[in-house]
Amino acid sequence: MPATVIVGAQWGDEGKGKIADLLAQHADVVCRYQGGPNAGHTIVRDGETFALHQIPSGILHPGTSCVIGAGCVLDPAQVLREIDELETRGISTRDLSISGNAHLIMPWHVAIDAASERRLGKLQIGTTRRGIGPAYADKASRLGIRVQDLLDAKILRQKIEIALDEKNLLLERVHEMPPIELGELAASMEDLAARLRPYVADTSLLVDRALRQGKRVLLEGAQGTLLDLDHGTYPFVTSSNPIAAAAATGIGIGPTRIDEVVGVAKAYVTRVGEGPFPTEIDGPDHARVRELGHEYGTTTGRERRCGWLDLVGLRFAVRVNGITSLVLTKLDVLSTFAELPVCVAYSLPDGTTAEEFPAHQSDFHHARPVYETLPGWEAPLDAVSGPDELPAAARRYVEFVEERLEIPVSLVGTGADRARVLARHALAALPLVA
Ligand code: IMP
């Protein structure tokens, strides 16, 4: 039985939540392997809307176990808000397990995230201000507080006290912010801890056992390839590794356990936050794509920057993730355009043209897109119920991506509704499609 990774192939917001939700119908275990409440997906189920940031959408499927892995950072108050919302709407969270090795986002992380961005001014990263970077920084510095510290009230208080010694200095002296009071924080953390304890588990063992028992496991990444800390457009990246290989470390299974890597990309590109973006649209089509695609952040409400499809970036994503099959979402958003530019290469400052993603930041910052323009289909896709019913130009658009990237496009999204996904090729994780 397969372990399948779902990974964002662009700068996040590719529609992974919807695809994960679709594949989760056939999964026994759904795991998040990195990131924290900087992610967000909205799932519409039987007319009800669920906004999830940390809990995998698999939670909405009765009988599916959900895991928040060691590679994640967890905001305890936020995760409890999500648990409460699910429970009050009749959705059980009994099958949710949280790794004791995941790190906690503490109030100082959120405060420092915002303060550092303010200090950076024009050079800011444009973070979600959820404390992600500072929490991962403390993890790497071995100063972090982990989920398993919630299991012992004495240890928890001690760790908070040690951390506050330094963090309050930083808050007061560097960021000119009020200090955090130990007693108040320790008491509120103890309340959160008491509620979170039942969810703490050895999730590496849980996933290993599930795989040994032949269960289907989905490993869901947050954000996207170009936001990867090591391989993305540093420093305009997140502080974890969204790429597929991180699913193994983030959960605690070996890389040999992963059978399939499904990359999810929009039929165009969006980016939130700062940083270079070669195919960003200049002119009125920008607002057109943004409005048609409802391109506003789920977590922050920010306007997303919009661009034409970038095959250089996608070729890179195929490479660094080992993508075995691509899902192209939101094809319907392009339905009113007469012509569709697709970036097939970058023109670089030294006068050369490259089909591979630049290895160095200066080349990427100055890269200019080389477009091939494909005809649009100028017809709605609402009534399309199978891939063969797509207008010829829409089929061509999808086939163009397949030809240039040399991998199959297995699924195509044609609308917000869960049913509006056309299956072109089988996936190990989607057995009903043949
Ligand atoms: P952070 O992850 O909050 O530190 O933000 C770092 C960068 O990643 C910023 O450009 C954010 O806009 C971006 N980012 C973080 N999470 C997401 C996401 O879920 N979708 C898209 N961009 C994200």
Entry keywords:
three-stranded antiparallel β-sheet; binds inosinic acid; 32% helix; ten-stranded mixed β-sheet; alpha/beta; single chain; 434 residues
Layout of secondary structure:
Layout: E1 3-8, H1 16-24, E2 29-32, E3 41-45, E4 48-52, E5 65-68, E6 73-74, H2 76-88, E7 96-99, E8 103-104, H3 107-120, H4 132-140, H5 153-174, H6 182-196, E9 200-201, H7 203-212, E10 217-220, H8 246-251, E11 260-266, E12 269-271, H9 284-292, E13 305-307, H10 311-321, E14 325-329, E15 339-347, E16 353-354, H11 361-366, E17 368-375, H12 392-405, E18 409-413, E19 421-423
Parallel strand pairs: 1-10, 1-11, 2-5, 2-10, 5-7, 6-8, 7-9, 11-14, 14-18
Antiparallel strand pairs: 3-4, 12-13, 15-16, 15-17, 18-19
Helix pairs in contact: 3-4, 5-6
Please tell me about this protein's structure.
Helices cover 32% and strands 19% of the residues. It is α/β, with parallel strands linked by helices. The strands form five sheets. A ten-stranded mixed sheet has the order 9-7-5-2-10-1-11-14-18-19, sandwiched between helices. It has a three-stranded antiparallel sheet with strand order 16-15-17. Strands 3-4 form a two-stranded antiparallel sheet. A hairpin with a 5-residue loop joins strand 15 and strand 16. Helix 3 crosses helix 4. It binds inosinic acid (IMP). Inosinic acid binds next to helix 4. Inosinic acid (IMP) binds next to helix 4.
